[in-house]
UniProtKB/TrEMBL annotation:
Protein's organism: Nocardioides kongjuensis
Protein name per the record: Dienelactone hydrolase
UniProt GO MF annotations: hydrolase activity
Ranges of residues in domain Dienelactone hydrolase: 4-191
Keyword Ribonucleoprotein: no
Top-level division of the source organism's lineage: Bacteria
Gene3D superfamilies: alpha/beta hydrolase (3.40.50.1820)
Alphabetic keyword roster: Hydrolase
Keyword Flavoprotein recorded: no
Length: 193
Protein backbone atom coordinates (compact mmCIF):
# COMPACT_ATOMS: atom_id res chain seq x y z
CA UNK A 1 0.00 0.00 0.00
CA UNK A 2 1.22 3.49 -0.85
CA UNK A 3 0.12 6.83 0.57
CA UNK A 4 -0.53 9.37 -2.16
CA UNK A 5 -1.32 13.07 -2.26
CA UNK A 6 -3.10 13.92 -5.52
CA UNK A 7 -3.28 17.58 -6.58
CA UNK A 8 -6.07 18.73 -8.89
CA UNK A 9 -5.77 20.72 -12.11
CA UNK A 10 -6.85 24.27 -13.01
CA UNK A 11 -10.55 23.31 -13.11
CA UNK A 12 -10.38 22.45 -9.40
CA UNK A 13 -11.18 19.32 -7.43
CA UNK A 14 -13.72 18.03 -9.96
CA UNK A 15 -15.76 14.86 -9.78
CA UNK A 16 -13.38 13.39 -12.36
CA UNK A 17 -10.35 13.98 -10.13
CA UNK A 18 -12.28 12.50 -7.20
CA UNK A 19 -13.20 9.42 -9.26
CA UNK A 20 -9.56 8.93 -10.28
CA UNK A 21 -8.54 9.12 -6.60
CA UNK A 22 -11.29 6.64 -5.70
CA UNK A 23 -9.92 4.21 -8.30
CA UNK A 24 -6.50 4.39 -6.65
CA UNK A 25 -8.17 3.83 -3.27
CA UNK A 26 -9.99 0.80 -4.67
CA UNK A 27 -6.56 -0.63 -5.52
CA UNK A 28 -5.69 -0.45 -1.81
CA UNK A 29 -3.90 2.89 -1.52
CA UNK A 30 -4.46 5.83 0.80
CA UNK A 31 -5.12 8.92 -1.33
CA UNK A 32 -5.38 12.51 -0.10
CA UNK A 33 -7.04 15.04 -2.43
CA UNK A 34 -6.46 18.54 -1.08
CA UNK A 35 -8.66 21.26 -2.52
CA UNK A 36 -6.29 24.14 -3.25
CA UNK A 37 -9.19 26.28 -4.54
CA UNK A 38 -11.38 25.99 -1.42
CA UNK A 39 -14.33 24.53 -3.32
CA UNK A 40 -14.16 26.79 -6.38
CA UNK A 41 -14.65 24.93 -9.67
CA UNK A 42 -13.66 27.30 -12.49
CA UNK A 43 -16.01 27.05 -15.47
CA UNK A 44 -13.17 26.86 -18.00
CA UNK A 45 -9.45 26.28 -18.23
CA UNK A 46 -8.93 30.00 -18.81
CA UNK A 47 -10.93 30.84 -15.67
CA UNK A 48 -8.86 28.35 -13.71
CA UNK A 49 -5.61 29.85 -14.97
CA UNK A 50 -6.90 33.32 -14.01
CA UNK A 51 -7.62 32.03 -10.48
CA UNK A 52 -4.12 30.57 -10.28
CA UNK A 53 -2.62 33.93 -11.30
CA UNK A 54 -4.76 35.63 -8.65
CA UNK A 55 -3.59 33.17 -5.96
CA UNK A 56 0.05 33.64 -6.97
CA UNK A 57 2.52 32.29 -4.42
CA UNK A 58 -0.34 31.39 -2.10
CA UNK A 59 -1.03 28.36 -4.32
CA UNK A 60 2.35 26.85 -3.33
CA UNK A 61 1.69 27.76 0.30
CA UNK A 62 -1.66 25.95 0.12
CA UNK A 63 0.02 22.84 -1.29
CA UNK A 64 2.64 22.99 1.46
CA UNK A 65 -0.05 23.27 4.16
CA UNK A 66 -1.91 20.34 2.59
CA UNK A 67 1.05 18.03 3.24
CA UNK A 68 2.29 19.52 6.53
CA UNK A 69 0.47 16.96 8.67
CA UNK A 70 1.17 14.05 6.31
CA UNK A 71 4.18 11.74 6.56
CA UNK A 72 7.22 12.48 4.43
CA UNK A 73 7.03 9.07 2.75
CA UNK A 74 4.42 10.07 0.18
CA UNK A 75 3.88 9.52 -3.50
CA UNK A 76 3.23 12.95 -5.00
CA UNK A 77 0.78 13.06 -7.89
CA UNK A 78 -0.86 15.88 -9.79
CA UNK A 79 -2.77 16.78 -12.92
CA UNK A 80 -1.59 19.67 -15.09
CA UNK A 81 -1.12 22.68 -12.77
CA UNK A 82 -1.33 20.27 -9.83
CA UNK A 83 1.59 18.42 -11.38
CA UNK A 84 3.82 21.39 -10.57
CA UNK A 85 2.95 21.11 -6.87
CA UNK A 86 3.51 17.36 -6.95
CA UNK A 87 6.84 17.64 -8.75
CA UNK A 88 8.07 20.47 -6.53
CA UNK A 89 7.27 18.52 -3.37
CA UNK A 90 8.73 15.28 -4.73
CA UNK A 91 11.96 17.15 -5.48
CA UNK A 92 12.19 19.27 -2.33
CA UNK A 93 10.38 17.53 0.54
CA UNK A 94 12.49 14.76 2.10
CA UNK A 95 11.23 11.20 1.95
CA UNK A 96 9.35 11.10 -1.36
CA UNK A 97 8.55 7.52 -2.39
CA UNK A 98 7.65 8.40 -5.95
CA UNK A 99 5.85 10.78 -8.30
CA UNK A 100 3.00 10.45 -10.78
CA UNK A 101 3.00 13.45 -13.09
CA UNK A 102 -0.06 13.85 -15.31
CA UNK A 103 -0.38 16.11 -18.36
CA UNK A 104 2.51 18.42 -17.46
CA UNK A 105 6.16 18.42 -16.46
CA UNK A 106 8.60 21.02 -15.16
CA UNK A 107 12.24 20.94 -16.35
CA UNK A 108 14.82 19.62 -13.89
CA UNK A 109 17.42 22.12 -15.07
CA UNK A 110 17.25 25.77 -16.02
CA UNK A 111 15.27 28.77 -14.86
CA UNK A 112 12.02 26.99 -13.91
CA UNK A 113 13.63 23.97 -12.25
CA UNK A 114 13.09 23.01 -8.62
CA UNK A 115 16.55 21.45 -8.59
CA UNK A 116 17.85 18.02 -9.57
CA UNK A 117 15.65 14.95 -9.47
CA UNK A 118 16.22 13.18 -6.13
CA UNK A 119 18.27 10.00 -6.30
CA UNK A 120 16.29 6.79 -6.00
CA UNK A 121 12.82 8.34 -6.45
CA UNK A 122 10.79 6.62 -9.19
CA UNK A 123 8.57 8.70 -11.47
CA UNK A 124 6.03 8.27 -14.23
CA UNK A 125 5.02 11.07 -16.61
CA UNK A 126 1.77 10.72 -18.59
CA UNK A 127 0.66 12.97 -21.46
CA UNK A 128 -1.52 13.06 -24.55
CA UNK A 129 0.03 13.26 -28.00
CA UNK A 130 -2.65 15.75 -29.09
CA UNK A 131 -2.34 18.06 -26.09
CA UNK A 132 -0.84 21.41 -27.10
CA UNK A 133 0.10 22.16 -23.49
CA UNK A 134 1.87 18.85 -22.97
CA UNK A 135 3.63 19.26 -26.33
CA UNK A 136 5.40 22.25 -24.77
CA UNK A 137 6.33 20.16 -21.72
CA UNK A 138 7.48 17.08 -23.62
CA UNK A 139 11.16 18.14 -23.71
CA UNK A 140 11.02 18.67 -19.92
CA UNK A 141 9.47 15.22 -19.48
CA UNK A 142 12.16 13.64 -21.65
CA UNK A 143 14.83 15.49 -19.66
CA UNK A 144 13.36 14.27 -16.38
CA UNK A 145 13.35 10.68 -17.59
CA UNK A 146 16.97 11.04 -18.68
CA UNK A 147 17.98 12.65 -15.37
CA UNK A 148 16.22 10.05 -13.22
CA UNK A 149 17.41 7.15 -15.35
CA UNK A 150 15.62 4.31 -17.14
CA UNK A 151 15.37 2.15 -14.03
CA UNK A 152 13.39 4.84 -12.19
CA UNK A 153 11.58 6.89 -14.82
CA UNK A 154 8.92 6.21 -17.42
CA UNK A 155 7.27 8.50 -19.95
CA UNK A 156 3.96 7.47 -21.50
CA UNK A 157 2.31 9.20 -24.46
CA UNK A 158 -1.32 8.42 -25.28
CA UNK A 159 -3.23 8.75 -28.55
CA UNK A 160 -5.59 11.31 -27.03
CA UNK A 161 -6.53 14.85 -27.99
CA UNK A 162 -6.81 17.85 -25.74
CA UNK A 163 -5.75 18.80 -22.25
CA UNK A 164 -7.18 17.13 -19.12
CA UNK A 165 -7.99 13.90 -20.98
CA UNK A 166 -7.87 11.98 -17.69
CA UNK A 167 -10.81 13.82 -16.07
CA UNK A 168 -14.05 11.90 -16.61
CA UNK A 169 -16.15 14.95 -15.70
CA UNK A 170 -14.82 17.15 -18.53
CA UNK A 171 -15.54 17.14 -22.29
CA UNK A 172 -11.86 16.46 -23.11
CA UNK A 173 -12.03 13.06 -21.35
CA UNK A 174 -10.68 10.10 -23.30
CA UNK A 175 -11.91 6.92 -21.60
CA UNK A 176 -9.50 4.49 -23.28
CA UNK A 177 -6.41 6.63 -22.66
CA UNK A 178 -7.45 7.48 -19.10
CA UNK A 179 -7.94 3.79 -18.31
CA UNK A 180 -4.38 3.10 -19.49
CA UNK A 181 -3.12 5.96 -17.28
CA UNK A 182 -4.95 4.48 -14.31
CA UNK A 183 -3.68 0.95 -14.95
CA UNK A 184 -0.08 2.12 -15.21
CA UNK A 185 -0.46 4.27 -12.10
CA UNK A 186 -1.83 1.34 -10.11
CA UNK A 187 1.05 -0.86 -11.30
CA UNK A 188 3.52 1.88 -10.33
CA UNK A 189 2.05 2.15 -6.83
CA UNK A 190 2.01 -1.63 -6.42
CA UNK A 191 5.75 -1.76 -7.16
CA UNK A 192 6.34 0.69 -4.31
CA UNK A 193 4.77 -1.78 -1.88
Amino acid sequence: MAEVVLFHHARGLTDGVRRFADSLRSAGHVVHTPDLFDGTLPASLDAGLALIRELGDDLDARADRAVDALPGELVYAGFSVGEAAAQRLAQTRPGARGALLYESCIPVTGEWAFGPWPAGVPVQVHGAEGDEFFAEDLPAAQGLVEAAGPDLAELFLYPAEGHLFTDSSLPTYDAAAAEMVLERSVEFLARLG
